Structures are given as C-alpha cells and as structure tokens.
C-alpha cells in the first residue's frame, strides 16, 4: 500500500523523443541525416544505394525514429514491425556502408543533441543498430 502511494507521485521519466524535443526535433534529425548524406563526399557510396528523390525515405526514417525514441509509433502503424535487418537484406551493407551511415548519424548527434548523457546514449544505440545491420563481409 505504501509503495503504491510513493510510486503514484514519482514522475515518469521522459522518453528520448521528449528529451529531444518531440516531433519537430526528430523530423529535423531525420532531414539533417539525409542532408549530410547528400552533401558529404564521405557518404557518396551510401547515397548511391538510396532511391532518388529522398522525400519518401526521409519520411519513413522520421516515422521510424519517432517510435524508436519512444514517441508515436508512426512507422509501425503504417508498415508493421520495423524488422530493420530483414528490410535491409536486399542491400549490401558491409563495414564500409555501416561506417558511412554512422558518420552521417554522428554528425547529426553532434549538431543537434546538446545533453551529454542523451548524446552518449543515442550514439551507443545507433552504433549497436548499425553493427546489427551488416549483412555482407
């Protein structure tokens, strides 16, 4: 009984989505990721494997990030479970592609995530995700 009283008054921790600033901030992250991919020569091979124009994929990435960060599950509502590895199997993702993807994402984090702890958490999560996506030697 007493524990319920104390737990009732303990605020829920903010999701990463909320910590980042919600929809506008997450959309900015997704857009900036693709802006970097389109303009940074270090991501040229990664850009080449994406269908052009990038409008649809920008939107899908925003929808994925929204749910992945603990916000609205926009991607899942439209397309079902993300199953990222399975969805990316048709694309040759090796360590070079992983590194190019991480290069773009790390730049986004450096530019847009000011909180050091959140920055570190997101960098670790994206690094783990990128390693998981490798499907070619």
UniProtKB/TrEMBL annotation:
Iron among keywords: yes
Pfam families associated with the record: Bac_globin
Keyword Iron in record: yes
Alphabetized InterPro entries for the sequence: GlbO/GLB3-like, Globin-like_sf, Globin/Proto, Hemoglobin_trunc
Assigned keywords, A-Z: Heme, Iron, Metal-binding, Transport
Family membership: Belongs to the truncated hemoglobin family. Group II subfamily.
Name used for this protein in its record: Hemoglobin-like oxygen-binding protein
Species this protein is from: Aliidiomarina maris
């Amino acid at each position: 009984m007493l524990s319920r009283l104390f737990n009732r008054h303990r605020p829920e921790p903010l999701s990463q989505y909320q910590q980042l600033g919600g929809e506008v901030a997450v959309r900015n992250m997704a857009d900036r990721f693709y802006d970097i991919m389109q303009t940074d020569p270090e991501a040229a091979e990664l850009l080449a494997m994406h269908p052009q124009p990038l409008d649809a994929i920008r939107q899908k990435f925003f929808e994925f990030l929204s749910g992945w960060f603990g916000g609205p599950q926009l991607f899942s509502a439209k397309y079902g479970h993300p199953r990222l590895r399975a969805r990316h199997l048709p694309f040759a993702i090796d360590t070079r592609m992983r590194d190019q993807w991480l290069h773009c994402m790390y730049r986004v984090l450096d530019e847009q995530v000011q909180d050091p702890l959140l920055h570190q958490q997101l960098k670790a999560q994206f690094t783990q995700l990128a390693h998981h996506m490798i499907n070619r030697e």
